[in-house]
Amino acid sequence: MAKEQQSTPELEPKKKSGFFKKLFLFFIVPLTFIIAVLLVVTQLLNVNVFNLKDMDIPFVTSQKEKTKQQAVNNDEKVLELQGVIAEKEAQIAEIQAQLKTAEESNEKLLAEQEKINFELEKVKREKDDTKSEHSEIVATYEKMSAKAAAPAIVKLSDAEALRILAGLKTDTLAKIFEKMTPEQAAKYTELLAKQ
User: Fold this and answer.
1) Residue 170 falls within a domain, yes or no?
2) Burial (0-12, 13-18, 19+ Cβ within 10 Å), 137
3) The pTM is what?
4) Segment 91-107, tens digit of pLDDT
5) Which residues form a coiled coil (predicted)?
């Protein structure tokens, strides 16, 4: 038995394997192997793992997507603003057309106003000339004797005779009526009364 005891190794307390040894064997070695396999696979797929900007990582929006989204949003805004600009340009064109029409209308009205003013001045001059001529005629009849004026007035049209008689002084008018026949004097008196 003694031999048997010698041949069996003594049961020595087993040393516990260290924490670092377990960490190394169960975590670091498998992790290194997995990383190496992933690097080989990514190399075969032509994917650059070290440039994360170009990678499409699921569930994570990349800078490219953000940039694309901003570009789409900017394009939409540009289109919207171009529409607004086109609308404003159409409104401006419409207002300019209205303004041009109004200017043409104003020019026509100004030309018409000038024409009317010219005609009015012409009529005023003619009226002044007529008044001047009428005043001269009335003054002439004032200077004439009643005996000569009465037959001349009777031979005029009623309207012209009435104008002359209305412009005469009352004492001259009375002398002219004395030289007319009673029917003629009554006729002109009635016409003067209606005036």
Assistant:
1) yes
2) middle
3) 0.38
4) 999 999 999 999 999 99
5) 78-133
